[in-house]
């Protein structure tokens, strides 16, 4: 099996013998895409009698909703929220007693950014996507497939909780998310335009060596038990997604492992020649370790990190007294495409 087949593997849609799949939908009314309310989605769900719906606004409420759905033995869990909501749902699922028998997942584009939904979620606006899903679930109309993807596990957060998600960012990725939350969103810019403005600002800082905008973050890392590397990093990321916002894919490793890992040192060499290709996942003769660029696929990553980090847009601090952060393949999730 090739690396592409492993990441994009379609698995059959198998439900128990009852006629229609049981659906549970968790909605975060605070997510950017739900700003106009949930009435349109409620109307759609009211026509499907095998559906449960709960609202939840924080990680604990989301966990309670997910566990309640699992107790009702749902077949399909619809996530109506942003990347942070997806992160909370995945954490609840993979730390539950049902982690070996997880329901199928379907993600609506209901966040401010919806980076995860744009990669593994349902196409189109949330109401259109939910209507299409319910029609398929009720009548079998339409074409449906399942995308199986690895999920990232993070151990070593200050909260003491094991975290699950699909994107980890530190150094410039962490600072960029903070800047976007505090400054760009405050200007009224949302979605991929906000991410684009943030990317442009931090790329310029990286090219010009502006360490005020893009502070240095000392890091040591070990990939799958190999040699430890040290650098002053301007970017650290690990993801199981195949594309990020604006369809960028700043990882170019070739190993057949589930986690994409990329690190770029502060003031790398030849940034104008290396970065345009590397940010789209295209190898460059300038994108070498000697020039300050690292990208590999791994199963387990050990990070000695002093600064903050983000998982699916949620900000955390490492528990420094507990040792390094450990990023690993936490299992696989199945995402509905319909």
Set out the fold topology.
Blueprint: H1 3-8, E1 23-27, H2 39-46, E2 51-55, H3 59-71, E3 76-81, H4 83-94, E4 104-109, H5 115-120, H6 126-139, E5 145-155, E6 163-165, E7 167-171, H7 172-184, H8 191-208, E8 217-223, E9 229-239, E10 259-265, H9 271-278, E11 293-298, E12 300-305, E13 309-311, E14 314-316, E15 325-337
Parallel strand pairs: 1-2, 1-3, 3-4
Antiparallel strand pairs: 5-6, 5-15, 7-9, 7-13, 8-9, 8-12, 9-10, 10-11, 12-15, 13-14
CATH architecture of the largest domain: 3-Layer(aba) Sandwich
Low-confidence stretches: 1-8
Number of strands: 15
The helix fraction, in percent, is 25-40%
Number of helical segments? 9
What is the residue-mean pLDDT, rounded to a whole number? 90
The CATH class of the largest domain turns out to be Alpha Beta
């Amino acid at each position: 099996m090739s690396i592409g087949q492993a990441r994009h593997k379609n698995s059959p849609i198998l439900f128990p013998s009852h006629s229609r799949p049981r659906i549970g939908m968790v909605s975060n009314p605070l997510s950017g895409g739900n700003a106009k309310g949930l009435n349109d989605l409620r109307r759609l769900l009211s026509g499907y009698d095998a559906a449960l719906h709960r609202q939840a606004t924080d990680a604990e409420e989301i966990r309670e909703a997910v566990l309640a759905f699992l107790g009702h033995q749902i077949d399909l869990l619809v996530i109506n929220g942003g990347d942070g909501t997806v992160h909370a749902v995945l954490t609840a699922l993979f730390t539950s007693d049902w982690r070996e028998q997880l329901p199928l997942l379907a993600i609506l584009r209901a966040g401010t950014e919806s980076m995860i939904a744009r990669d593994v979620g349902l196409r189109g606006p949330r109401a259109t996507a939910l209507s299409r899903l319910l029609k398929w679930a009720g009548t079998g109309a339409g074409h449906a497939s399942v995308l199986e993807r690895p999920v990232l596990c993070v151990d070593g957060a200050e909260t003491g909780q094991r975290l699950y998600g699909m994107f980890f960012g530190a150094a410039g990725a962490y600072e960029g998310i903070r800047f976007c939350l505090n400054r760009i969103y405050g200007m009224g810019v949302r979605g991929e335009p906000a991410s684009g403005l943030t990317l442009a600002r931090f790329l310029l800082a990286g090219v010009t060596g502006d360490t005020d905008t893009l502070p240095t973050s000392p890091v040591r890392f070990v990939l799958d038990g190999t040699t430890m590397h040290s650098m002053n990093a301007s970017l650290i990321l690990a993801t199981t997604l195949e594309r990020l916002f604006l369809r960028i894919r700043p990882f170019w490793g070739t190993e057949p492992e589930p986690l994409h890992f990329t690190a770029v040192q502060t003031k790398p060499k030849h940034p104008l020649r290396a970065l345009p290709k590397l940010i789209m996942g295209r190898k460059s003769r300038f994108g070498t370790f000697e020039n300050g660029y690292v990208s590999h696929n791994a199963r387990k990553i050990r990070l000695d990190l002093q600064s903050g980090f983000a998982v699916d847009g949620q900000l955390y601090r490492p528990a420094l007294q507990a040792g390094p952060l450990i990023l690993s393949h936490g299992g696989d999730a199945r995402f509905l495409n319909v």
